[in-house]
Amino acid sequence: MRLGERSYAVHVGPGARKLLPDVVAALGARRAAVVTARPPETVPDPGVPSTVVRVRDGERHKTLATVEDLCRRFTAFGITRHDVVVSCGGGTTTDTAGLAAALHHRGVPVIHLPTKLLAQVDASVGGKTAVNLPEGKNLVGAYWQPAAVLCDTTYLETLPAEEWTNGYGEIARCHFIGAGDLRGLAVHEQVTASLRLKASIVSADERDTGRRHVLNYGHTLGHALETVTGFAVRHGIGVAIGTVFAGRLALALGRITAGRAEEHARVVRDYGLPGALPEDADATLLTTLMRRDKKAAGDGLAFVLDGPRGAELVPGVPEDVVLRTLGGMPRQSGPARP
Question: Which N-terminal stretch is annotated as signal sequence (predicted)?
Fold first, then answer.
């Protein structure tokens, strides 16, 4: 990730976690707070005096209350800006620990050890940290770039099937934002390709003022689905459904052909992901939630959509078109599953 003096390396491969003591030593940290959702024995020794803070992965635990608890634990152990926070878990853990590190003493270095596919391909890299409010997802956050990210692919070997599916939602949307066709590649190649794309985009637009918006492809509806279902629809599944919707909406606006819209559905299916809304999803409520999206201007609706120039932010999308497109989406009974 090339960000001038704040540039950092992202290491991908089996055993990457073993680099942790060297990274900590290079920072000159005196002590470490290890925030982990994994068993403590799976976290490498950071090489300095440390405390282990246990957390639980999951959007329900990604709250300001969790951040406060982390900061109090950091304080009790004496963590200062001369020390380091290490996160080890899924994307919700890297988000929460990253925000706590950003706020504690106005900024403590953080190193991420993402242990789930979704976290490795997206959540741990780029510096966005945030927690949820009852009103919506990721509404309270800060930009805080990590000092390093260690994507140890051996962590993925024990993941249950639903975690693989959740991660593939982020990989599938990469097909439409410049990564090319990643289907059929080995998982470490998919992770690396996704990260290289994200690094190139974030390096050019760290604070989400322009080009970085494309990383939110499929996320506007995805986040709304997470919120309205109380996170029964998981993030990657929501993004997959949102990607299919983005193709249909771009078609409705005359931005792409019917064939390109169908490609959205086909790519999502090829990753074993669903492309249908939950049967009881309310289109009006989803639209209300999508107005709160961080890309939206005022009360307008904005989406990242495919088009003649590729994926780009499209503001001012008419509500009636959004509602009509949602109404035309396929539906499935029960929680959204592949």
Answer: none
